[in-house]
Design brief:
This is Alginate export domain-containing protein. Keywords: Signal. This protein is mainly β. It has a domain of 128 residues. The chain is built from 5 helices and 20 strands. The protein has an 18-stranded antiparallel beta barrel. β8 and β9 form a beta hairpin. About 1% of the residues have low confidence.
């Protein structure tokens, strides 16, 4: 047993006890008692996935029943606490036919192990994961956050080379909140658009840790940022921006990564992205984004790399990438979206159509496909056509 395992077990236990007390004793809305305030929320989702080969002779089915509980505690005028847990019952073909699947769902990529499997059978696994568990001190221009949290330094939509702390996988559409990270973060805001922030992501070693800082400010009509620090085994320096060119939104990021070991012998690389977005007069919203992935190295399993959070220095399964995206509000309760993700240097085409329907105020239905085309997937994926249907009730 490692020294941190008893702490992780205690945190899990405390979270579950607190969650049980809150559910029993509190309604689902904020309750005020002086400065003390608790707000509960979350959702229940039913997600089905059909995976098929190109000739549709082989069809596989997977299912996720997903419950999320979110809690915000206002303890005093300046101190807040947040704790969220994901509970997922995962079943189907992938559970039965993936070697070591229980170990995969038991694994927590952060310093504290706040992920565990309640039980596993031949066809199903029940997993829980505490992905937010942090205290915040907020007093005027000062903010300090400690614990598992979301640290968002990205500016662009799909790929974020500035996001040193916790990048996310674009194809993992069912994780709207995106992963958290065990970190200590301090921020000072000297105006609405200007701040300085420094943070530490805790790792088992120096090469698994991140120590970085970011300065945000405004230059003319643009919000800009400058980042720097230690990222795993690299020194990272970069910048990002968001503003407008005429009526089109213009955003971008780039970061230079230089190896810390053999500093003078080895060369560094740049990872950069830039994108535009524009709303047409007829209500169609268009987006495009380009990526130069200077840290690319070939993966034997491209689909696995696409659905797991990438590292900031290697964001895609190719040296280049592009996104074309369009969305339209078909009806006040119905929206549609079409995306194309691809590369200029590898034969990759990922077509993502989706329709979202608001059935009631708290109930939504989603139809989405991820069609993986090109030689990269023909060689590595048996069932490259993925079809999802999801029912989500929020409370």
């Amino acid at each position: 047993m490692t020294p941190r395992e008893p702490l992780c077990n205690n945190l899990r236990f405390l979270f579950l006890v607190a969650a049980g007390i809150l559910i029993i004793s509190s309604p689902l809305h904020a309750q005020d008692n002086g400065n003390f305030n608790i707000d509960l929320g979350g959702y229940v989702k039913e997600l089905g996935q059909i995976a098929a080969g190109n000739d549709f002779t082989e069809i596989r089915y997977d299912n996720i029943l997903h419950h999320r509980l979110e809690s915000d505690w206002k303890l005093t005028e300046h101190i807040e606490f947040r704790a969220d847990i994901r509970n997922r019952l995962i079943s189907g073909y992938s559970i039965k036919n993936t070697p070591g699947v229980e170990e995969f769902y038991e694994r927590d990529p952060n310093y504290l192990d706040l992920t565990w499997v309640w039980f596993d059978t031949e066809y199903s696994i029940l997993q829980s994961n505490i992905d937010r568990f942090h205290a915040s001190y907020i007093n005027g221009p000062w903010e300090v956050h400690a614990g598992r949290q979301r640290v968002n330094w990205g500016r662009t939509f799909v790929w974020n080379p500035n996001d040193l702390f916790n990048n996310y996988a674009f194809l993992d559409f069912d994780y709207e909140e995106r992963p958290g990270v065990d970190a200590l973060l301090a921020q000072y805001n000297w105006s609405y658009a200007s701040s300085v922030e420094a943070g530490i992501r805790v790792g088992n070693s120096w090469d698994e840790s991140v120590v970085g800082g970011i300065v945000r400010t405004s230059l003319g009509s643009y919000d800009v940022q400058f980042i720097g620090g230690h990222y795993l085994d690299y020194i990272a320096l970069g910048t990002g921006w968001a503003g407008y060119l005429e009526d089109a939104g213009f955003k971008g990021e780039f970061t230079y990564f230089h190896p810390e070991d053999n500093f003078f012998e080895e060369r560094g690389h740049i990872t950069a992205t830039a994108g535009f977005d524009y709303m047409l007069n007829n209500g169609i919203y268009l987006q495009t984004e380009l990526l130069y992935n200077g840290g690319y190295n070939r993966s034997l399993n491209p689909l696995d790399r696409l659905v797991r959070p990438p590292s900031a220095d290697n964001l895609f399964i190719a040296t280049s990438g592009y996104l074309l995206n369009g969305s339209y509000q078909i009806h006040p309760l119905v929206s549609g979206n079409m995306s194309l993700l691809g590369s200029f240097d590898r034969t990759i085409f990922i077509i993502i159509p989706q329709i979202n329907v608001s059935l009631t105020e708290n109930l939504d239905f989603l139809l989405l496909s991820q069609l993986l085309k090109g030689s990269v997937f023909r060689e590595a994926v048996d069932t490259p056509n993925l079809f999802f249907f999801r029912l989500k009730y929020s409370y």
